[in-house]
């Protein structure tokens, strides 16, 4: 079976969030299970493309509106990611450094999708499934069925994965003229509330859609930024498949980015050694429990309650807990965190920005990880934490409630109900008290590290879905 994954993010080529981690791992695990899986994404002028070798395997041109666009399809020469990687390069459109935030994003993603289908059709590529990830490639299921230019692809099955239903790729109907020619009787498939909505289009037109956890699928039926009725109406072709993690990259026994390796058999000493060096570097007390946050400063992630949450914890537990924050995003949230850090610099350390190696070190050094998310389709941070013996304290939402079971229910984490600083702080305090008993700590860490959240199970579920469609 030949499957082509389409996405604008793929780790380590270009990453903003969990989308990149999924696309950078799932095809590799599918290939190990016998599927001919590959990835096509836009070209970005970043470290990965600068440091690796690429061959031009196809060229082409097409009209986008009145503009004639030329593209190159580049293949990474050595399959260093464990699967074939192809990049679409279009001068002055898909050759930039940043992934998002350009004024002509709609033009970029339309051109990317047009180029992909042009390449597949004109080079006699015969995929069984086009697996589309998020709204940036949401027009693909529509174009393969209803574009006049790509009728040879109408029998190719399309799977669409919703990584985050809050972002839908809305664009004005003025962009309709640059979409590849289509059956105009089908214009309603593109429309939602007077705008072209690629996410809605994908759900209407794909052969199956998936979400990155079962819990998130059910939540989309109730709240999906205006699309909840659509998700519910199309539920017969939906399936929730929880994300996995790449255990060749996230494994404290072999991780080259952490200071001391350890396994489930040596977790106590291993984490203590990592924590000692980490705390010394950031001026924290290694004898105290270390709570960390890793992620974007966004209300979606509940980061707006972090300043109050930190202050509550440090007022109540001064000298009894240390906190480390790694993240970037909303400037106001960052300023509020900085203000708290100025008042509690003995117990709180922050790193504004993102650093991949530092993230690995935080997981290896921390005792607890806090995730107070308002929306969390799956969440990967809690899965990384579990693999590293770091106990997650999470809100009971989306994929978090699918992957973390509270210790009071025989599990290995701590859950709270609301995005509320006081409740979150109380749950952290509950976790600290529970884990202060050596037997509880050992049992919880061992259980967490023994869990299998690798991509093996999830990759098999996707393959089962492909087989049902084909």
Structural summary, described in words:
The chain has 470 residues and is of the alpha/beta class. It has 17 helices and 17 strands. Helix 5 (140-146) packs across helix 6 and helix 9 packs across helix 12. The longest helix has 18 residues, at 105-122. The protein is elongated. Pathway: Glycan biosynthesis; glycogen biosynthesis. Synthesizes alpha-1,4-glucan chains using ADP-glucose. InterPro entries: Glyco_trans_1, GS/SS, Starch_synth_cat_dom.
Furnish the topology, listing elements before pairings:
Blueprint: E1 2-6, H1 18-23, H2 26-32, E2 36-42, H3 47-51, E3 54-64, E4 67-76, E5 85-89, H4 105-122, E6 129-133, H5 140-146, E7 157-162, E8 191-192, E9 195-196, H6 198-205, E10 208-211, H7 214-220, H8 228-233, E11 238-240, H9 267-282, E12 290-297, H10 306-316, E13 322-329, H11 331-343, E14 348-352, H12 356-365, E15 368-371, H13 381-387, E16 391-395, H14 398-403, E17 414-416, H15 421-435, H16 438-450, H17 455-469
Parallel strand pairs: 1-2, 1-6, 2-5, 6-7, 7-10, 10-11, 12-13, 12-15, 13-14, 15-16, 16-17
Antiparallel strand pairs: 3-4, 4-5, 8-9
Helix pairs in contact: 2-17, 5-6, 9-12, 10-11, 10-15
Q: Which homologous superfamily in CATH is the superfamily of the largest domain? A: Glycogen Phosphorylase B
The overall strand count is 17
Characterize the largest beta sheet: strand count, sense, and whether it forms a barrel.
9 strands, mixed
Portion in strands: 15-25%
Assign a percent range to the helix content: 25-40%
Biggest sheet, spatial arrangement of strands: 3-4-5-2-1-6-7-10-11
Tally of structural domains: 2
């Amino acid at each position: 079976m030949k499957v082509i994954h389409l996405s604008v993010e793929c780790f380590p080529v270009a990453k903003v969030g969990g989308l990149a981690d999924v696309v950078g791992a799932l095809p590799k695990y599918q290939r190990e299970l016998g599927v001919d899986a590959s990835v096509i994404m836009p070209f970005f002028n970043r470290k990965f493309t600068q440091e690796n070798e690429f061959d031009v395997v196809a060229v082409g041109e097409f009209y986008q509106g009145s503009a004639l666009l030329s593209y190159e399809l580049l293949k990474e020469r050595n399959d260093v990611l464990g699967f074939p990687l192809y990049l679409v390069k279009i001068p002055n459109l898909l050759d930039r450094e940043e992934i998002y935030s350009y004024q002509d994003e709609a033009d970029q993603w339309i051109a990317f999708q047009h180029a992909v289908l042009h390449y597949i059709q004109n080079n006699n590529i015969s995929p069984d499934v086009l697996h589309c990830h998020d709204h940036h490639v949401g027009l693909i299921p529509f174009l393969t069925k209803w574009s006049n230019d790509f009728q040879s692809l109408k029998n190719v099955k399309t799977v669409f994965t919703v990584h985050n239903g809050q972002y839908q790729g809305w664009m004005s109907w003025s962009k309709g003229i640059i979409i590849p020619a289509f059956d105009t009787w089908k214009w309603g498939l593109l429309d939602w509330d007077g705008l072209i909505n690629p996410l809605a289009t994908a759900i209407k037109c794909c052969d199956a859609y998936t979400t990155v956890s079962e819990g998130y699928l059910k939540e989309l039926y109730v709240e999906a930024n205006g699309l909840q009725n659509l998700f519910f109406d199309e539920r017969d072709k939906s399936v929730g498949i929880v994300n996995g993690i790449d255990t060749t990259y996230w494994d404290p026994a072999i991780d080259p980015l952490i200071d001391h390796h350890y396994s489930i058999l040596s977790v106590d000493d291993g984490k203590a050694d990592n924590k000692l060096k980490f705390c010394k570097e950031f001026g924290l007390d290694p004898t105290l429990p270390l709570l960390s946050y890793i992620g974007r400063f966004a209300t979606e992630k509940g980061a707006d309650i972090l300043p109050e949450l930190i202050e509550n914890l440090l007022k109540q537990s001064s000298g009894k807990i240390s906190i480390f924050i790694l993240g970037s995003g909303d400037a106001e949230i960052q300023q509020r965190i900085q203000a708290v850090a100025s008042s509690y610099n003995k117990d709180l350390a922050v790193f504004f920005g993102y650093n991949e190696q530092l993230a690995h070190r935080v997981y290896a050094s921390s005792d607890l990880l806090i995730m107070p998310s308002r929306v969390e389709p799956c969440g990967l941070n809690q899965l990384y934490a579990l693999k590293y013996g770091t106990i997650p304290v999470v809100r009971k939402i989306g994929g978090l409630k699918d992957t973390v079971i509270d210790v009071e229910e025989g599990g290995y984490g701590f859950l709270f109900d609301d995005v509320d600083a006081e409740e979150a702080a109380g749950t952290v305090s509950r976790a600290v008290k529970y884990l202060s008993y050596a037997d509880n700590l050992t049992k919880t860490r061992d259980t967490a590290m023994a869990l299998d959240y690798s991509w093996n199970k999830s990759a098999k579920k996707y393959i089962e879905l492909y087989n049902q469609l084909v």
